[in-house]
Amino acid sequence: FCRDGRPRPRNKPLAEKKRPRETPEETAVRGVLEELGSVLEHGCAIDVNRDSLEEWVETRHSNSFPGLETVYQLYQVDVKVEGLTRAKTGTSFESLENPSLSTGKVHSWTWKPSGGVDWQPVDVLKAKNEIKDDGAGEHGGAVRAEGP
């Protein structure tokens, strides 16, 4: 949801910008805690499947600096979160970002079947249109949550 309460559909998996000196695995765990923390049990295990780590480079125009061509180093990793199941949350659910860790946004989630998310690198034209249409930010990493 936007700050004014309007919904902003992204239809994308959880994604987080990687911080300097942070590993892709650390970014994935931080992203899960920031964006899904309100629906997780305190102290739950977050298991990052290091063997699933993929990385690639994309070049596209920055939405923050119009006209500036930017190179993005992207990562994708599978994560299993203890207690985060469709049986617990239902087919769709909402989470509130922890305001002390992030922006306090509300996120709406829908479980997708394994293989139901397009994980191929985004082509430049599609990325430009998505950025222009829905204002989605530039992401430095992506997390795919596995569940039953």
Please tell me about this protein's structure.
This protein has 148 residues and is an alpha+beta fold. 19% of the residues lie in helices and 30% in strands. It is built from three helices and five strands; from the N terminus they run H-E-E-H-E-E-H-E.
Question: How many beta-strand runs?
Answer: 5
Radius of gyration (CA) equals: 15 Å
Which sheet architecture does the biggest sheet show?
3 strands, mixed
Given as residue ranges, the uncertain stretches (5+ residues, pLDDT < 50) are 119-148
Helix-strand makeup class: alpha+beta
**Counting H and I runs of at least 4 residues, what is the number of helices?**
3
- Order of secondary-structure elements: HEEHEEHE
Q: Beta-strand percentage?
A: 25-35%
What's the overall geometry? Answer: globular
CA distance, first residue to last residue: 26 Å
Strand order of the largest sheet: 1-2-5
Query: What is the average of the pLDDT values?
Result: 75
* Residue share in helix: 10-25%
Q: Could you write a compact summary of the structure shown?
A:
This protein is of the alpha+beta class and 148 residues long. The protein has helices spanning 24-36, 86-89, 124-134, and strands at 46-61, 69-81, 92-96, 106-110, 142-146.
